[in-house]
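Technical appendix A lists one of the benchmark inputs used to test multi-chain prediction within the project. The record comprises two sequence entries:
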Amino acid sequence: MALQFVDSCAHFVDTVGVEEAEVLLDWLQKTPDAVIDFGPCTHVHPANLQVLMAANASVRAWPAETRLADWLRPLFPTPEPTVAPAPKRKRRKAA
Amino acid sequence: MNPLLTQFLSEARDFLQSIAEKLMQLESAPNDNEAMNELFRAVHTLKGNSGLFDFPEMTRVLHAGEDLLDAVREERLAYSRALADQLLDAMDFVGMLCDEIESRGAIGAQHASVGAELAAALREFMTSDSDSAPDAAPAAPADLARAVASNTPDSIFLAPPAEELLAIPEDIRRAAWQRAHDGASLYWLCYTPDEQCFFQGEDPFFLAQQTPGLLWGRITAREAWPPLAELDAYRCLLRFDLLLAITRAEIDQHFRYVPEQLTLTPLPALALVLPVGDGKDSAEGEDFASAALHQLETGSLDALRHATTVMLELASPQRWLASALRWLLLLLDTHAARGAVRLLLESIRDGATPDWRQSGTADAAAQATPAPPHGDPDTPAALLPRANEVAWEILAWQGEVLAQASRVAALPGHLHAAATTLRNCLRALGRPDDTRRVDEALNEALATSSAAPLAACLQRFLAEAGATAAAPVAATAAAPASSPVATTASDGEGEPRFGRRADDLLPGSRTLKVDQAKIDRLMNLIGEMVVAKNALPYLAARAESGSSAREMAREIKAQHAVINRIAEEMHDAIMQVRMLPVSFVFQRFPRLVRDISRKLGKEVSLVVEGEDTEADKNVIEALADPLVHIVRNSLDHGLENPQERIAAGKAAAGRIALTARQEADRVLIEVRDDGRGIDPAHIRRKAVEKGIIDADTAHRISDQEAINLVFAAGFSTAEQVSDLSGRGVGMDVVRDALEKVSGTVTLESEVGVGTCLRLSLPLSMAVNQVMVIESDGQAFGVAMDCVVETVRLPRSSVHTIKDSLAAVLRGRIVPLRPLNTLLGIEAPPLCNEADELAVLIVRHGSDNVGVIVDDFRQTCDVILKPLDGILDALPGYSGSALMGDGSVLLVLNLKELI
């Protein structure tokens, strides 16, 4: 099962397909303090994303896959304040 | 290619043909419901068929066409010329896609945007008010569609607002700047998926993630989210903003199924130079910037770079100033234009976000961005730097061509060709004004019969190009100028698009549609042939068992007769299979005449007769090109403008009649117009001017001979060379093409009344039946179809009337000609033992003529080969044939001889 509900946490596993969106919407309506765990997730169908966005769900764990995480981070408020991306860079020396 | 696809292509061509026919038919009779229904059905079926394959571009255009026709059918929309134009354009596009599928097996991604544009233009008709003036309609929807489909930048600095770009993290923007510096083109892509896309199994997020050259992307909501209870999870409300560093073609390829859902904006790299952080206004920034601006003015860039580095070490990395300094350093490192650096410094001084849209800096933006994607990518004429190079290369080659153009006879042709190439290249390079210089040089060159003026003109262009190339800034700056010009040029002239014109060669259709009955007949004949073959071993057994030679000979002859009959029937059956109606060639002319006459502003009615006349496939195919030339000539030179016609007391609409009919073993095709005709005096003058004949000859030749000069190589009377005709390669090509299939062309013309061209072609080019005759000890062949009968006349019944011989045959006087005399042989005709002359009665026009020969032999089937080489010029012979015994038989052309 790509989508697992444990108490008030929804676990996204591997690829979460379009058909889960309805289930997710139902669950979110019933669970006001829902948190999301994307940990082992590799792809989320956008139907799920918009449901999560509309519910303004909070995210407990970002996907391990960094590219997906980069896409998802700006979409949701996060309980942990540490994830705000701060541009770090090295200075470039003149050649 | 799989059989299904092959069949689809063959059917698609038929559908396209019938769609075009119906569209034109409806133009003259817009209320023809039956034609309308057929048209709709054809488009509908074609769309359905195309859906079987992976051709989204084709299906999309056809679908839009189908919807439009449905609206017309239900009378929600009026049929108009503009609508027909748009549909014909769309069908041309589909035809072009078919060609591409046939040659490459797939459709290139570059067509996606054109397809979307066409579909949008078609749909525009439905949304636009049907009351709007039909004449004004075509331009507006097309423009709108283009704007919608590609979001064409009307200025080169059309970037998304800075706020949007600020959403991109600075390091990604810096990386993008580097990519642009390395030569990549940057695009800002807004992908707004269809609301229903989830139901179609699409995953827009995945598509966006997989975009090649993706530097950054984000997902946004299109509208505020409703409460969860009202949310429809499957109505897509997302939008994807992507920053891409790839080519336009790759974008088209990746998003080929959803081109209408994209808004693509070329992004100048400078737009990304936006410092972020807090504390914009700072005293140290202002001081630094003032000093740095001074350094910039004095050109001490190293000092500037050093100062920036030091300042950056002092500044806190989170602050706005630090971000601005990092950008400054990057601009300096990538040798950005000075104007850009100055603007950034000024913004540091004022503590404001640099506004790259500011007037005057747009140029700086263009210069600073290495090879930015200027111009409208949808117009093929928009030149990328590479294409620019190619254009200059072509120009350089023209120089070589002109240097070699020394043969006087072909010189005008060479000059015209070179001038046309020059003009086209200049137009493509965005310098249409310079084409006038080419024209002047061409006229001078033609007047002096020398390539020098044109070559000099070309050299000047190349020299200018050298100067331009030395300053790449100017070259890139010239590029954006080229695109709007090219766009208006191609739109303004209503130039047919998709590299396809109605008069182009039909794609060599390699399939032949054959009536089932013809194939059944062949099958039966093969059966008979097998039986006849099986009889031969019996004959061999009889010969071995010792039958008499005479008996054997009789039986072999009998068997020969059987096989002969079968071979003849098979030949006939095969020829039947190869027969094509001339409509195969004629069918393109309604469209051709329609397009060209509208372009020329003439009114023309085309009359086609005898389309059912059949001839061999090769002959019909060989006919296509010459006919196109002729009809184009008639349209361009023959027919006058409506005003001229009315002034000359003719109907405003010109008339071109295409007639085909069969006469004996020839197909006669006539192209007759009621235009101004050909003026022999004019032809004489032109021919002398062009050095085709000298002045003495011009006076000596008859009017008809003068008119025939249009068939001379390099002859053209058009004052102005257009892309229709007038290149001086028309009529001689026509004559040569026809002669290749042993056809002939004759021209009749009367000034003010019209011109008529008659083409005569053989019905088929395979086996001929000839009768072998003997004269002065030699054997000759005579084509069987002109032989009426063979008779033996007693010498006493031949009378001499004046100088010629005649005889009375069955109560009619038949003129007699001895073959020996016709061939210039001295010997008198021989008689047989009974003192009778062998006379071959042949058809000559509508009369019969007797040809006196020495003796008759058998008839036989031969494959007639036309004489070639030096023998080609020999009159009186239609060709040679190889006989069963290995000898060569010369076949006489009695029509020429008598």
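Chain B has a mean pLDDT of 77. The two ends of chain B are 56 Å apart (CA to CA). Comparable benchmark entries are summarised in Table A2.
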